[in-house]
Amino acid sequence: MRIRVLGSAAGGGFPQWNCNCPRCDGLRRGTIRALARTQSSIAVSDNGERWVLFNASPDVLQQIRSFPALQPGRALRDTAIAAIVLIDAQIDHTTGLYMLREHRQPLQLWCTRQVYEDLTRGNPLLKLLEHYCGVNWHELPLGEDFQLPGLEGLRFAALPLLSNAPPYSPRRDQPQPGDNIGITIRNNSGRSLFYAPGLGQMEAHVWAAMQAADCVLVDGTLWTDDEMIRLGVSQKSSRAMGHLPQSGEGGMIEWLDRLPRTTRKVLIHINNTNPILDEDSAERATLAAHGIEVAFDGMEISP
Ligand code: MLT
Ligand code: MN
Ligand code: ZN
User: Fold this and answer.
1) Number of domains observed in the structure of the chain
2) pLDDT tens-digit profile of 280-292?
3) Test site for ligand 1: of 90, 119, 163, most ligand atoms within 8 A of the Cβ
């Protein structure tokens, strides 16, 4: 199984266009050692020929250009993207669908009913796409294994988890099961990845899925709960936005510490304010001491 990190940043990317926080400013000025990052998406394949996108980032065109396997060039119009799975209905995970509108057939799209509702009502993106390629919507089954056509060597299992619904959703701050999911991906030899770029609370079934995985690729949005408030860029805490902060009591580091030593631990969906983006930061050293990696654009994982 091949996992390719297409975009490792949270909404806004890194640097964010209008942001002059220490990380964004430091990257632009070259005063910190850090990598620019595009917005949240991964591509997964069993054989390297056909790929499923998890999330369609606003940066998807740049991501396709930087990963030639997604453009195999076998026909006049061609793509190696066989399917798209959405883990929520947030802007940073769905806007890329607009950029794929030239597809020759309807896009094969898997998401929950709640995500489908948000994308046909509050943000009627799927309705607009009907005027272009359209989508073939497949309701994502929760709690049971499913397969994706063209990726027969992989099995997928989605589980509901607590994060948040998008700001435009009628369920903002009252998320329901299905507004956010995590995914376990398993190959024929039983190796598995657990992916959850938005994870706000460690429920028992989520913890069980993380313990069972060979690699976890999980929410690395913010270092502290009040990070954006203290910087003066937002009024919202990390937990209120549906993202478990890394540091502190009950934070992601504490949870990852309790996984088996052999589990590979990688943070993804990093917000541009997060000090871990600075490779020379104390926070980054703390992660390294705990055996936790930070995803970057172009990272490949073979669990
Ligand atoms: C989030 O996960 O909270 C998002 O990155 C928000 C956004 O897309 O602006
Ligand atoms: Mn996001
Ligand atoms: Zn910033």
Assistant:
1) 1
2) 999 999 999 999 9
3) 90
